[in-house]
Amino acid sequence: MRRRRVSDSLDPKTSSSPAIETRVDNSGLIEARVGNLVEDLKGTSFDAQRDATFELRLLAKQSMENRIVIANCGAISLLVDLLRSTDKGVQENAVTALLNLSINVENKTAITAANAIEPLIQVLETGSTEAKENSAATLFSLSVIEDNKVRIGRSGAIGPLVDLLGNGTPRGRKDAATALFSLSIFMRTDVQ
């Protein structure tokens, strides 16, 4: 077996990078898959929307690269629209996908720009237990950006968060408390 010298690793003729090649191949596959899922989000079939939102939810949970691809393929505004779905499964998956996407800082801005705050509050008020919990967690995630704290607070989130804090599951109470705490520490920079 030949020992590889440091200079060999710098020579493109003697070094190959299967990890990089695989990453490029996987990225293309993910982008194509996400493109198909985005098309399913646009349809009217609850089954197709439920399956697509579920798969996007899982993909967004897996990696930062997936979160970026999903956002770049235009899924965020469609997921925000699906927060108003009458199908509870679609709604749960959409809010959870947005929660997972919000881990990326640029996606926080994109989610807010897609006018997600009011629909997230609606889910917090009327959604299933899981949807309420994930809505509270998403509001917390978005509140990391200072400007969003004001928007969230002014949009009526405090009441539903307090309700979840008092009446939710242990996880729901934790998510509500975390969101309320984040909203309460808004620092005004214009006060001296």
Automatic annotation (TrEMBL):
Can you tell which superkingdom this protein's organism belongs to? Eukaryota
Region (Disordered), start-end ranges: 1-22
What are the alphabetically sorted keywords of the record? Repeat, Ubl conjugation pathway
> Which positions does the entry assign to ARM repeats?
74-116
Annotated Gene3D superfamilies: Leucine-rich Repeat Variant
Bias (Basic and acidic residues) occurs at: 1-11
**InterPro entries with a match to the protein in the record:** ARM-like, ARM-type_fold, Armadillo
User: Which PANTHER family does the record associate with it?
Assistant: U BOX DOMAIN-CONTAINING, U-BOX DOMAIN-CONTAINING PROTEIN 4
Protein name (database record): U-box domain-containing protein 4
Q: Could you tell me which species this protein originates from?
A: Prunus yedoensis var. nudiflora
